[in-house]
Design a protein that fits this description.
alpha/beta, 9-stranded mixed β-sheet, 8-stranded mixed β-sheet, 16 helices
């Protein structure tokens, strides 16, 4: 809330009784409230709040807009900051200059490793940023009972955090099978947060199952993969978040549902996006640009990315450039190409000085890989001739296929067949709970010869490794144990490239640019050993996520999505 003195200053600056703190001169204002682009005029700002538009003001500081378009800051409605592999302060450095001035995050990656300590870290980090980071409290720690996480959070654990100024509501309710089955723990969380925003996660959920899911009060979904699925969810009152991550890229398929009629119920999100793509392609700006390129009307797309997003999530102080709203704005050279020339966040120009000299909370989650070094024999898969279930990777999708194949066998052990793109896959519990190992086969990484391993394995974040030989798989896993988390690429007894992620095994404690630079040789190493996936590490990271159809592998074994829920299956 604003005090009386602040309100008086806003009134006086709006009326011209005193100069505005900041005036952006000569801009064409993108009016997302009425869908118009206004003729050049000034925009006046007092502190972090807009106090005047469509007029002329004097300013203590003035910026020449040069006839550019002034647009509201972009809102990422669902993101896991941890997937950028950097801490929140470094995430801000990567996305704020691209025009993302507000992000709604779910810290369930770090929460599945460290529990409440991880969520509290994110709440504290949000208070140290120039951009707005709102935190939805993680609903699925663990995501299901068919995996081993490092923590368990119930409704009573989460509810005391709901009053934090950075908290927004309940994060994506991923365990939709649990909701539909009436799981007491899930229903208790939905009841506890009934007066808050309830974020959804319902891939391929349609018909009466969707009705039941929505009947709990869940409001949004970012898992639509087809226009038909999105249209049904919109027709049933759900808000659809068009996602463009590094693996799941749905904007092109969903662009037809974003129209002049539907934009108030649409928004954009990135979910999981790596630092390389943030730098080379963009963040929410990239998703918006792609939607327009695939046929969404430019004005409707901009309204969804700003006012639509703010309205859906109850962010009443932003989403449009109008008096009384937060001064988050972009100066654009072009509307359709989303050419961001400058960013102002909370009334302050986004320059290197904005990021300097600020104190941020110390990261949590060091020392989280509690697993002794492993031997190659751990990765043996016993069995003779015959077919076995195989996870089929679908490029640019976190949904997998349930395939079947007959791997070669020798001496009572089943082997990989890289010529057919058939590889061994293993998930190793790494939280020091039970030492479980899940083993199976996967197809879709190409003729890979070597191993790729990661401590990022949604959402319980156990160690996951794919490879063609047990010795390389063991070496890759042991390198992760030595690094206390990260990614590693191995070929025939040598580590070709790696990246340390010591903060909960998910994030680097180095800068955004360091991670981006280190990811280049890691990606090149993956290609060098034959991996054909554009984004092998995030694609690998989703293979242990059982709440995404159709076949996944956790530390407890293969998990299949059925019409009635999830179940462990025998290989």
């Amino acid at each position: 809330m604003s005090d009386t003195a602040t309100l008086r200053r806003r009134i006086d600056q709006a009326l011209g009784r005193e100069p505005a703190d900041l005036v952006v001169r000569d801009v064409r204002l993108l009016d997302v409230a009425t869908g118009r682009l206004h003729a050049p005029a000034d925009l006046a700002i007092c502190g972090d709040t807009i106090v005047g538009t469509l007029g002329s003001w004097r300013g203590r500081v003035e910026i020449d807009g040069r006839g550019r378009i002034a647009a509201p800051g972009l809102i990422d409605t669902h993101v896991h900051v941890e997937s950028s592999m950097v801490t929140p302060a470094e995430f801000e450095k990567g996305v704020l200059p691209r025009g993302t001035t507000t992000a709604i995050c779910d810290p369930h990656e770090i929460a599945n490793v460290t529990g409440l300590a991880g969520i509290r870290y994110f709440l504290a980090a949000a208070r140290s940023l120039a951009m707005t980071l709102r935190v939805n409290l993680s609903s699925c720690v663990p995501a299901t009972e068919l995996e081993t996480a490092g923590a368990r959070l119930e409704a009573a654990d989460l509810l005391p955090l709901a009053s934090d100024p950075a908290a927004l509501g309940l994060a994506e309710v991923m365990n939709y099978p649990g909701v539909l089955a009436g799981d007491p723990g899930m229903l208790a969380k939905l009841e506890a947060f009934a007066d808050h925003h309830l974020d959804g996660h319902a891939p391929l959920v349609r018909g009466p199952a969707l009705d039941a899911y929505l009947a709990t009060g869940i409001a949004t979904d970012h898992e639509c993969s087809t226009a038909e699925e999105a249209a049904e969810k919109l027709a049933k009152g759900m808000a659809v978040l068009l996602r463009e991550g590094s693996v799941a890229k749905n904007v092109a398929a969903l662009a037809p549902v974003l129209t002049d009629a539907t934009w108030p119920r649409c928004a954009f999100c990135t979910d999981d996006r790596n630092p390389l793509e943030i730098v080379t392609d963009g963040h929410v700006d990239h998703a918006l640009r792609k939607a327009i390129a695939h046929g969404a009307p430019a004005m409707a797309a901009w309204r969804a990315a700003t006012l639509g997003a703010a309205t859906i999530f109850g962010l009443r102080d932003r989403g449009l450039l109008a008096p009384g709203k937060r001064a988050d704005l972009l100066l654009l050279d072009d509307l359709e190409s989303v050419a961001v020339a400058a960013v102002i966040c909370g009334g302050r120009p986004v320059t290197s000085e904005l990021f300097a000299g600020r104190a941020h909370p110390a990261p949590v989650g060091y020392g989280s890989v509690r697993r002794a070094p492993v031997a190659p024999e751990l990765f043996e898969i016993r069995g003779g001739p015959g077919t076995t279930p195989v996870i089929g990777v679908v490029p640019h999708s976190i949904i997998t296929e349930r395939l079947s194949a007959e791997p070669p066998s020798r001496g009572g052990r089943r082997l990989a067949d890289p010529a057919r793109g058939l590889h061994k896959l293993a998930v190793l519990e790494r939280h020091g709970v039970n030492g479980n190992v899940g083993r199976g086969f996967v197809q879709g990484f190409g003729p890979l010869r070597g191993a790729i391993a990661s401590s990022v394995g949604h959402d319980s974040h156990n160690l996951i490794v794919v490879g063609d030989e047990d010795a390389d798989m063991a070496l890759a896993v042991n390198r992760l144990i030595e690094l206390q988390g990260g990614v590693a690429v191995v070929r025939r007894g040598a580590v070709l490239a790696d990246l340390a992620l010591p903060v909960a095994g998910l994030m680097s404690d180095r800068g955004f640019d360091h991670v981006r630079e280190r990811m280049v040789p890691v990606r090149e190493a993956a290609r060098a050993i034959g991996c054909t996936l554009d984004e092998p590490f995030l694609q690998l990271a989703f293979l242990p996520l059982p709440v995404i159809p159709h076949l996944k592998l956790t530390d407890r074994g293969l998990v299949a999505a059925t019409g009635t829920g999830l179940k462990l299956i025998e290989p």
